[in-house]
Each structure stands twice: as structure tokens, then as C-alpha cells.
Design a protein that fits this description.
The protein is of the alpha/beta class. It has 17 helices and 23 strands. The strands form four sheets. Strands 3-2-1-4-7-6-8-5 form an eight-stranded mixed sheet, with helices on both faces. A six-stranded mixed sheet has the order 11-14-17-20-22-23. It has a five-stranded parallel sheet with strand order 9-12-15-18-21. The radius of gyration is 27 Å and the shape is globular. The chain starts with about 20 loop residues before the first strand and ends in a 7-residue tail after the last strand.
Length: about 525
């Protein structure tokens, strides 16, 4: 008889195994014992059942270890505290995600505050089988009004970023990911490789880009917000952070040259034309222009005292951008190398780049559609298709619209959209993304709305609708899908590659790759002819 069975010989019941939580909250903390305790207390008041989530806190080498304080707390949910030598936020969050047991992971910061339905709002955006990345809002703590101008500027900037992602016709993207408030599937994180611990800043947007490239769908949730009240009060440290972001954004851009939104040199093209000479001067003469930066910030502070908030924030933006571009210049190594980077950006994402992109897109579309329609892509086939095909004309007008949008000519985009609808009978939303070689066999009556995303070589057979069912988002259609006449594809769903949508089908759920969707509502069956194609 073993000691485990006791003196009476009665069987000892097995130790209960904790159920796997649906959600894991990961928080990295550093020298903020009071703030992390405040946040953990707010998690204790969540509407989400305490059995449905856990919290993993990673102490990144705080001078006063957090664990002894947190282990004294009485909390209704599972809490684990990991401690490591100081290695940076990316390493701490990565350790926390790997330690997490939930299917969905939510990351926030130790200086945030949350409402009682915060966790429930995030979890509701992750239905079973989805691959969503949910970015929540960041609202300023009311006490932010007592903070320095540069910290209030962050709150203003967060509001602008939120506005750019809000609404049913807007889509968040990977390069907008920030770790103050984001949730995703743990499996997607691990498969993407997690945070790059070599990045001292910008590891969040770099992860976001990889997740989006891996097929995750990004969305913004206004209701799942946090309150941010910063304890940063040093202007010098703020400038150093701007400089570091310039350095590390340059490294991110080098890895993801196909994503111009992460390129630091975009500031020279996107900011107010009146500010561009100051930004260029900071690149050409980084040290000599530091007094100019100080003067701009001094003017911003004066505007702030005078109640001119917009002018104050604009001046702060210029101050930040000047120091940020000094960081990019530092990473470039020399002025000639920096000039080379600027030229490369101009030729890919700037006005010259938009023209080259248009020419390449028109050529690629012509070759792919000719190959699809005529079985070959010779000069005669391409010429015949360009001259006779309404389907190609739809696509050509779409490329012109994209160029107008990229060149900052919204009226041009609108005028071409009207022409596309009136002359060719197809309506395509202003934020729709069409892949290469998309072909409208019969365009009349087809609507592709909102911010739907259509992959390469997709074929529409006429009178199709790709839209939203309840203003809850728009579909993603992957490569080589055929959409039969009269079919409807509705809602934030994904139609997998090489699938076939039957005539008049109404598709309201995800369609796996190599499937067939038929009926109202559509039922999904595997394709039987895949191997024979």
C-alpha cells in the first residue's frame, strides 16, 4: 500500500486538472508595482467569467520585484507571475504568450485601465475558427490634461489612428498593430514566429505585418478600449524614443520593403508641405538643426498656453518627426545612403512609384486575363483582349482608380468609379483591393463593396454581390476562386483558394480552400476535380 493511499487504504481522488481558459491576458511590467496591481484589480471585476480567462504577468527585471506583491492578492481568476532579467518589452511579452494557455491571447500594458466588459468585448471578436487580430481603442485617462504637451499629443495621435480604422468600410492593417490593446489567436502568433526580440522598438508593427501576410484578418474594435494615463514626464526621454523609433522602423522597413506604410521616409512625403523643409534639414544636418527642433517645440508650447491646441499638436508632430528622421539617418549611416532610401521610397510609394505601379499592374492584368481567356499571352492575344474585353476595361479603370487614390486625388477616384458603374455596369467600392488578373466575365450588375479583398485570378460571372450582411465587415476572396452568376458572398468571411461558388448561391460562412458552395444558404462540399485540373 502506497503512502498516497493513506492508512485506511481508501483511494485518493485524482487532483483536478484546471480547465484551459478561453482567453489569456499577457501584461509585461517594469517598475510599476502600484499600476499593475490596479490593473489586476480591474480584471477581477470583469463581466467575463473568471473561469474563462487567466492573467500572465511578466516582470522584466524590475528594481523592486513584482512577484512578492502580486502573490499576496486575492483574485477570482488564475494569475501567474513570470520573472526575468531585464530584456525589453518584446522579450517579456513573448515569454508571456508562450506561457499562456488560452486559445486567444490579449496583450495590454501595465499602465492601462479597463472597463468591466473589456475582456468580453475582445473575446466576442474571436468566434471559433476565425483568425482575427483585434486592435482595441486607446482613450486618454481624464488625468492626461495634467500631463506635458508631448504626452497629450500621443492621445491626440491615438484618436486620429482610431478614426482611420473605424467604421464598416475601413479595415485595420498589420502595420497599425500596437501592444497597448490587441488580441489574437496564440496559434497564429506562434506560427508567425512571435515578437522579434532583437527590435528595441516597433516589434509590434513588425509582428502585425507578418500576421497579415500569414492571412490573419485585422479589425478595430472601438468598444474594447483601454484608458491610458502615462507616467512619462521627461521631454528628453520622449525625444530619445522618437530617435529609437526612427532606427528600428528603418530595420522593419528593410525586412518588409513591400509595405510602404512602415518606411520611415514616408514622413518626407506625407506631412504638411510647409513642414517638409524642416524634416529634410534634420536629415541633411542632424546636429546643426537641433536648435531648430527646440524652437519648433517652444513655439508649440506657446500655442498650447494660448489655447491653440491644433497648432500645438502640429508643432509637436514636426518636433517628433525631425527627431524620428534623425534616427532613420543614424540607421542609414550617411547622407548618400539616406538619399538612396528616400529615392527608393519615391520610386515605389511616391508619385513616380504610383505611375510605375500602374504600368506594371496594367501589364500583369493583361497577360493574366489573356492567358485565362485565350490560353496564351502572346502579343496578338493581349491586344485582342484589351480592345474587345469589357472585363479587362473594368480592371483597367480599377487600376486607374488605385493610382488616383495613391496620388492623393480622391475626386479622380470618384469620377472613375462613376464611369466604371455607368458604362460597364459594375460597382466597386473605393477601398476594395483587387488582385492581379481578376476577370469580370459578365460585369453587369456586379457589386464588390466596402473594403472587400479579392485575390489573384478570381472570376466573376455576372450579377454578383460581395458585401456585408449586418454591417459587420466584408469578405476576403482568395486566389483562383470562381463566382457563379447571381451568387452572393456576404459578411466578414473568407472564401478559400481555388473554390467554386455555385450560381445564385448565398454564402454566409467561411469556405475552405478547394471547396464548392451551393444553395441558399450555401452548403459547403469538397471539390472532386482538384487533382484533375
Amino acid at each position: 500500500m502506497s503512502a498516497a493511499n493513506g492508512a485506511s487504504g481508501a483511494a485518493v481522488p485524482p487532483r483536478p486538472v484546471a480547465l484551459r481558459p478561453r482567453l489569456s491576458v499577457v501584461v509585461a511590467t517594469y517598475n510599476r508595482v502600484d499600476l499593475i496591481q490596479r490593473l489586476l484589480g480591474q480584471f477581477a471585476r470583469q463581466t467575463l467569467s473568471a473561469s474563462d480567462f487567466e492573467v500572465v504577468v511578466v516582470d522584466d527585471g524590475s528594481r523592486e520585484p513584482a512577484a512578492p506583491h502580486l502573490e499576496k492578492l486575492t483574485l477570482p481568476y488564475g494569475l501567474r507571475v513570470e520573472t526575468q532579467a531585464n530584456a525589453g518589452a518584446a522579450a517579456a511579452r513573448h515569454r508571456g504568450v508562450l506561457a499562456a494557455r488560452g486559445e486567444v491571447v490579449l496583450i495590454t500594458d501595465d499602465d492601462m485601465q479597463v472597463a468591466e466588459d473589456f475582456l468580453a468585448k475582445h473575446l466576442a471578436r474571436h468566434p471559433r475558427g476565425s483568425r482575427n487580430v483585434v486592435i482595441g481603442g486607446i482613450r486618454p485617462d481624464p488625468a492626461i490634461s495634467d500631463m506635458p504637451l508631448f504626452e497629450r499629443w500621443y492621445a491626440w495621435l491615438n484618436n486620429r489612428i482610431a478614426a482611420s480604422m473605424s467604421g464598416p468600410k475601413r479595415r485595420a492593417h498589420g502595420w497599425q498593430l500596437f501592444t497597448g490593446n490587441v488580441s489574437f489567436r496564440r496559434e497564429d502568433y506562434v506560427e508567425a514566429g512571435g515578437f522579434d526580440k532583437s527590435l528595441g522598438q516597433s516589434e509590434d508593427i513588425e509582428l502585425g505585418v507578418r500576421l497579415e501576410k500569414a492571412g490573419c484578418r485585422f479589425e478595430f474594435c472601438t468598444e474594447a478600449y483601454v484608458l491610458h494615463g502615462s507616467d512619462h514626464t521627461s521631454y528628453e526621454k520622449w525625444l530619445k524614443r522618437a530617435h529609437r523609433y526612427g532606427i528600428f522602423d528603418s530595420r522593419v522597413a528593410a525586412r518588409h520593403a513591400d509595405v510602404p506604410q512602415v518606411d520611415p521616409w514616408r514622413y518626407l512625403f506625407e506631412m504638411n508641405p510647409l513642414a517638409r523643409p524642416l524634416l529634410a534639414a534634420a536629415v541633411v544636418a542632424p546636429e546643426a538643426t537641433r536648435p531648430v527642433t527646440q524652437a519648433v517645440m517652444a513655439a508649440a508650447r506657446l500655442a498650447d498656453k494660448a489655447g491653440l491646441k491644433k497648432a500645438a499638436f502640429m508643432g509637436t508632430s514636426v518636433t517628433y518627426a525631425m527627431e524620428y528622421l534623425r534616427g532613420a539617418r543614424t540607421e542609414a549611416g550617411s547622407l548618400p545612403k539616406a538619399a538612396k532610401h528616400v529615392a527608393r521610397y519615391a520610386l515605389t510609394a511616391g508619385r513616380p512609384g504610383q505611375v510605375l505601379k500602374l504600368a506594371r499592374a496594367l501589364k500583369d492584368d493583361a497577360l493574366q486575363v489573356a492567358r485565362s481567356e485565350y490560353g496564351q499571352s502572346g502579343l496578338k492575344s493581349v491586344a485582342a483582349m484589351v480592345l474587345t474585353s469589357d472585363g479587362y476595361r473594368v480592371l483597367a479603370l480599377q487600376r486607374l482608380r488605385e493610382a488616383a487614390r495613391g496620388l492623393g486625388v480622391p475626386l479622380g477616384n470618384h469620377a472613375l468609379r462613376v464611369a466604371q458603374t455607368a458604362v460597364l455596369g459594375v460597382e466597386i467600392g473605393k477601398d476594395v483591393e483587387l488582385g492581379s488578373g481578376v476577370y469580370f466575365v459578365h460585369s453587369l450588375g456586379t457589386v464588390v463593396g466596402g473594403d472587400a479583398k479579392v485575390g489573384n485570378r478570381v472570376r466573376f460571372y455576372g450579377n454578383n454581390t460581395v458585401g456585408t450582411a449586418k454591417d459587420d465587415g466584408y469578405p476576403v476572396i482568395e486566389d483562383d476562386v470562381w463566382v457563379g452568376a447571381g451568387a452572393r458572398i456576404l459578411g466578414p468571411i473568407t472564401v478559400g483558394a481555388r473554390s467554386r461558388i455555385g450560381a445564385n448561391a448565398v454564402v454566409l460562412q467561411d469556405v475552405p480552400p478547394d471547396s464548392v458552395a451551393v444553395g441558399i444558404p450555401a452548403r459547403i462540399i469538397p471539390r472532386k476535380d482538384v487533382d484533375g485540373e
